[in-house]
Amino acid sequence: MLNTLIVGASGYTGAELAAYIHRHPHMTITALTVSAQSADAGKLISDLHPQLKGRVDLPLQPMDGISAFAKGVDVVFLATAHEVSHDLAPQFLDAGCVVFDLSGAWRVNDPDFYQQYYGFTHQYPALLEQAVYGLAEWQGDKLKEAKLVAVPGCYPTAAQLSLKPLIDGGLLDLNQWPVINATSGVSGAGRKAGLANSFCEVSLQPYGVFTHRHRPEIATHLGTEVIFTPHLGNFPRGILETITCRLRSGVSQTQVAECYAQAYGDKPLVRLYENGVPALKNVVGLPFCDIGFAVQGDHLIVVAAEDNLLKGAAAQAVQCANIRFGFNETESLI
Amino acid sequence: MLNTLIVGASGYTGAELAAYIHRHPHMTITALTVSAQSADAGKLISDLHPQLKGRVDLPLQPMDGISAFAKGVDVVFLATAHEVSHDLAPQFLDAGCVVFDLSGAWRVNDPDFYQQYYGFTHQYPALLEQAVYGLAEWQGDKLKEAKLVAVPGCYPTAAQLSLKPLIDGGLLDLNQWPVINATSGVSGAGRKAGLANSFCEVSLQPYGVFTHRHRPEIATHLGTEVIFTPHLGNFPRGILETITCRLRSGVSQTQVAECYAQAYGDKPLVRLYENGVPALKNVVGLPFCDIGFAVQGDHLIVVAAEDNLLKGAAAQAVQCANIRFGFNETESLI
Amino acid sequence: MLNTLIVGASGYTGAELAAYIHRHPHMTITALTVSAQSADAGKLISDLHPQLKGRVDLPLQPMDGISAFAKGVDVVFLATAHEVSHDLAPQFLDAGCVVFDLSGAWRVNDPDFYQQYYGFTHQYPALLEQAVYGLAEWQGDKLKEAKLVAVPGCYPTAAQLSLKPLIDGGLLDLNQWPVINATSGVSGAGRKAGLANSFCEVSLQPYGVFTHRHRPEIATHLGTEVIFTPHLGNFPRGILETITCRLRSGVSQTQVAECYAQAYGDKPLVRLYENGVPALKNVVGLPFCDIGFAVQGDHLIVVAAEDNLLKGAAAQAVQCANIRFGFNETESLI
Amino acid sequence: MLNTLIVGASGYTGAELAAYIHRHPHMTITALTVSAQSADAGKLISDLHPQLKGRVDLPLQPMDGISAFAKGVDVVFLATAHEVSHDLAPQFLDAGCVVFDLSGAWRVNDPDFYQQYYGFTHQYPALLEQAVYGLAEWQGDKLKEAKLVAVPGCYPTAAQLSLKPLIDGGLLDLNQWPVINATSGVSGAGRKAGLANSFCEVSLQPYGVFTHRHRPEIATHLGTEVIFTPHLGNFPRGILETITCRLRSGVSQTQVAECYAQAYGDKPLVRLYENGVPALKNVVGLPFCDIGFAVQGDHLIVVAAEDNLLKGAAAQAVQCANIRFGFNETESLI
């Protein structure tokens, strides 16, 4: 049994991680922590997330320094703010833990990226170079020896799973940038009070047009520019992305289907649609990314759906841990 | 044209009042105000409530004392916190305005009530005695000469419209207290950030069981005790109340129907159902309170629906103003 | 491994049963069936319920007589219409299967009940007498030898779990009938096209006032009359019941708490709230019934929440099967 | 007062038309009709649409031939199926009525279009040529003398209002087709039972990818090809369209803003956003089309929102009628 620490466990992703690890046959929760300043410190996680009542009734312990928590811990999940993850990851690595970070702090191997898009100066360029980007279906071998895994962002997961096989396979005409229209449930904004997330204020609308920091994350890892327009949807969880691309002249529907089948035919958490495209409800509460597509002439529309808190966060983190430690890739997830 | 001031115009009720007064043929908005400390001061009301864009693009002026705003004003709507309404109403009355208050500060003619349920000491017992409770269908004559109208709470409006004719008509066996189960949309909590109103946290649930201050408001005005259980519903607006009562022995369905017909047959904003009971969607966005009922033996179930922001607040306030000034009762409302 | 047949597997309950049995370590799905006339015959269950894609991709086989399906089957779940269950259960029993029926056809040991409330004449009074009512927390020993288990209705499950300990413990003054206000998600109406279930037509509203057939089911098994008012809620799944009762004079909050603790302290699928009452979201997607309460004087309000498709149907059916066959009571459910 | 007939008044658009005409100072409803075979024949429109109770309590009369209804009628609104409108419009024109058709039967001046996209052979090419396409902001003068107005489709209204000024102004590089991602509320599918519109089946998902017949309507009237991907959203009403375009090299944000201001600065039902983009809730229940945009380099994203039943149907029909008869363009709409 791997001793597992979940840091920043009060949020929606933390609650999902706690549920997965609780039922994992090879991992056990040693502690759940929150910031020492948090008003939630000392509460049970099931007080904040009553769906966990009777399953995970552990306290959220205030963490003021890692020393009291790192000892004997094999695995750490950081569900913390970007700056906090930036500071904590090196400390837990020094303590001998394997770290899975769900923030944006370790996703792009370029210190300038953080200055530009996250507003802080990255202090650990050498470590950044060693961090493995946890897009699980594409990083299998690298994950097996990773010390620090940067779990991808929610939007980038669906976008890259959709586009990477096509781009790597040379099927797209990239003179025309892929247009990614994405809609996310409100949980993507985290568990916090805010007028923008207030029930009566939420309705379908774009936000962060041209400015969302998931765009450069997508573009960097795909190696091509994209137009990315995120929307807030009037539902608690799930992401649907509709991606409009230009095929290279002559590429057929069959070639696209074969490209996807080759990439994901043996991947248990990507579900390909032979006909039609996914709906959001197909994936909510589940660890899958569903992908379907349609072709007309040189135009290709790919539709991907995932649960932003699961394949877009907690489930992919656990999937990466499963791969890292040689467990069944879907252990505790399905 | 009556010069009209809306105080506390940044909230959901304020926005509805602004829309009604804007299209009222005999009333005109002189100013919209918010607290001088409000972060919304100086913004347009249509920045906060974009549905008003192109209709009411007036600024929310910071009000620090009434003097700059009361001059020349005939009518004031107070959509302010209870304590604020308590302080402002006497000042506007002194300035010669007719005041329609949508808070709880003037609804019950008993100073102890405020200490017990609202947590402040009422300073104006004489004025409290003169305030007219604006349950419009039942206060017509008193409203015509009112200086200060206390617009009823959202839950009490539907509850009283449902029960008052039955109680006044002697149809109920009050040894068994009426059981009022009510569900309100989230806008009832006001326009403010708060975890409890956060999109992902909202789902159907009771709150304030045995402790909600609308219970004593209902009981006082009906002159009988009730059991009142409010619920938060997963919708932005509307209230549905299901009220279970005991009929006096021998009272028939026909008698109940006649009782309601007599009370509301000529009332334009109460809609009676001859068969069946109302659904929430029948009233959302509309100024009506809909009432239906069913009888079995001595058991009576009454169902009432209204929009909490309209018949439960802004529309009833304007209805009271229409009656007060001799306009058509439904002017600007339908 | 018990060979398991799910009859009527195309509906929402059938899909939940399929998911549970699929992951059950001691049960395996031998076939999923639908009526021979069904337009869904021959489709994969995951075509109808895409959340099952990659997990349960079995065909819905048309069943025209049980002979082709009963052989070698240990366990049958009937998720069929009342009349169909009435006809099929005896046949499967004759074939040596243990039958768990999720319809209303075997719930009340009184043939007249079916005539009056379900509109058909029950043909099997002797079998009706042997059927075990599957309110799992209360029928443990009887379930262990049951041949035919009548899984309770969704509303009756929450209502009885809430009231039975209080009534059996003599804590209620039953001269005043308990008032059960219940709100169910739309899936309670089943998976079928109908204007009443159409997205734009759904909003919170009572239905079946005084006439819903779950009232006599509740009353019969509790041995006391109740007032039951079901509502349709604007959400896909979940039931919340707010139950207003009269305590016998002198009964304290502590006695109520102790009564519940004694009844359910060791029951894994009933979660008691020491403070406060449950919200719908606490149980959606989960097999629990959550119960909380508040007392004021002689008035008691109990609030129960469950997922109508799970503890109100599929999960309770599997729970009954687990008890019947000596498995862990929560096997495959948590 | 213009005598006004609403044909096909049982649907969602019919109900909105009835509400608008009911409160119109220069138009009066002479009759509401449904097909003679309709199960709704003889019912009150307020039985089907209870929000109209107390406002429009007129019967839905079965219409079996126009003769009993056309006499003395000045204006006819056809809210009927495409084939029905195709048959009825010429008859009402012969009877001297001015016809506003909300179906697709008269929108494109090309008989082949109907064969290809609507599956019927258009019988009236001469009349088709005279029909005026009622995109109100762009057809003002033509509307003033129109006999037959083809009110645009819901999606095409927002798409064309967004793109037409840019295209006509030469601001776009049309080598790259505009990509229109649109999400509509469920009411767009009409008031009818169907599994796809069933409450539990609805979630965000694309449909009609590459095949929706609003694409050729948009392309024909804009004179350029577009990629159009409609989605079903989990809300009853409203449309949001996010349109990604390529600007001609060197075109600035200011030029785009000026282009829109010139087109719509004096148009009361198009609301331009100086900053930011619209949200769906800004327009639900209102007759506006809201437009905002953002520019980055040569990339332009335009966001348009409207209520599919109002500016996308009933409100635009009344707006056309107002223009046609010389009334205030927004009469009864705001």
From TrEMBL, chains A, B, C, D:
Protein name stated in the entry: N-acetyl-gamma-glutamyl-phosphate reductase
Semialdehyde dehydrogenase NAD-binding domain span: 3-146
Function: Catalyzes the NADPH-dependent reduction of N-acetyl-5-glutamyl phosphate to yield N-acetyl-L-glutamate 5-semialdehyde.
InterPro entries per UniProt: AGPR (IPR050085), AGPR_AS (IPR023013), AGPR_dimerisation_dom (IPR058924), AGPR_type-1 (IPR000706), NAD(P)-bd_dom_sf (IPR036291), Semialdehyde_DH_NAD-bd (IPR000534)
Keyword Oxidoreductase among record annotations: yes
UniProt keyword terms in alphabetical order: Amino-acid biosynthesis, Arginine biosynthesis, Cytoplasm, NADP, Oxidoreductase
Lineage: Bacteria, Pseudomonadati, Pseudomonadota, Gammaproteobacteria, Enterobacterales
GO CC entries: cytoplasm
Gene Ontology terms: biological process: L-arginine biosynthetic process
MF GO annotations: N-acetyl-gamma-glutamyl-phosphate reductase activity; NAD binding; NADP+ binding
Catalytic-site annotation from UniProt: 154
Biological or metabolic pathway of the protein: Amino-acid biosynthesis; L-arginine biosynthesis; N(2)-acetyl-L-ornithine from L-glutamate: step 3/4
Transmembrane segments: none
Pfam families xref list: Semialdhyde_dh, Semialdhyde_dhC_1
Presence of keyword Acyltransferase: no
Location relative to the cell: Cytoplasm
E.C. code: 1.2.1.38
Known catalytic reactions: N-acetyl-L-glutamate 5-semialdehyde + phosphate + NADP(+) = N-acetyl-L-glutamyl 5-phosphate + NADPH + H(+)
Domain of life: Bacteria
Main location: cytoplasm
NCBIfam families named among the record's database cross-references: argC
Entry's family note: Belongs to the NAGSA dehydrogenase family. Type 1 subfamily.
